[in-house]
Amino acid sequence: MSDNVLTIRDLSVHYRTDQGELKALRHVNLDVPRGSIVGVVGESGCGKSTLISSIIRLLATNAVIPNGSIDFENQEVLKLSEDQMRDIRGKRISIVFQDPMSTLNPVTSIGRQMIDIQYRDKKSQAEKIKRSVDMLESVGISDAASRLKQYPHEFSGGMQQRISIAMALQAEPALLIADEPTTALDATLEVQIIHLLKSLQSDFSCSILFISHHLGVIAELCDYVVVMYAGEVVEEGTARDVFHHPAHPYAEKLLKCDPAGIPEKSRSLPTIPGEIPNLVSLPPGCIFKNRCEQAMAQCDCIVPTWTESSAGHFVSCHLHSSE
Length: 323
Ligand code: SF4
Description:
The chain folds into 2 domains: about 5-90 and about 175-260, Rossmann fold, CATH 3.40.50.300; about 105-170, no CATH class. The chain is about 30% helix and about 25% strand. It has 10 helices and 12 strands. The protein has an 8-stranded mixed β-sheet with strand order 6-7-8-3-9-10-12-11, sandwiched between helices. The protein has a 4-stranded antiparallel β-sheet with strand order 2-1-4-5, with helices on one face. It is globular, with a radius of gyration of 21 Å. The site of iron/sulfur cluster (SF4) has 14 residues, from loops.
């Protein structure tokens, strides 16, 4: 039995569209070791949202899964019944979304919402209120008992995100999926939320799958990093390895685009020129070749193999292939 809370193997997810089958995820492997924080990084369109929807099995109706498996706590998620999935969602797997106002109900008090989500627990009302107060305090909301009566709009954006995190952790999940939870916040609040997640992860002993397009944030918080590009995993390793020694040209470019890492004053932010290829008709060879400054002849026609560039640091790029 593995000590991963989540193990994804060879997962592909396609969407049926009028233009043809859009191959949103292809042969993805991902491990979340118990008690660790794993970051998934990549720009829009890399497949991060499809990955999350697959894990909680809330894919769009035009999605098909031609191959792969998702093992969560030694259960094959893709084979569970809807009732079994309902037991997992919100209890064993919780999610914090980018925009807290899409999580919180604007017309219901925070207290009512925090009590309602404990509907599975056989506790008294007083115990549920106490639990809600404790959770708000654990995320740094002062005077929590009286603030239970307030509505979401009476809190700042950072406070709303803290409340979303409190609600997500209330059921003590084994896995917390944080889907770009700091993207809508300013830089100061971003740092606060990252530190909060880090301390809560050790208090609650849960694992976190942290999704972001921002490699700097991932490096600050995560133990392991998975870099995704156009529906594929292109690099994987410890946060230290990927951040200090990125092996894939795409990861290198992502790091150079981090505003915190720009060495000199500039009026323009660095970007990665070019676009993600059409996922309906995939080009041959390396998926990143049209944007890669180091592309070689073989990149045009040969798909790079998964190679260990250093101990525990894997990459899919001909620059590191021994063949
Ligand atoms: Fe660039 Fe070639 Fe590596 Fe692809 S395989 S990232 S095109 S060097």
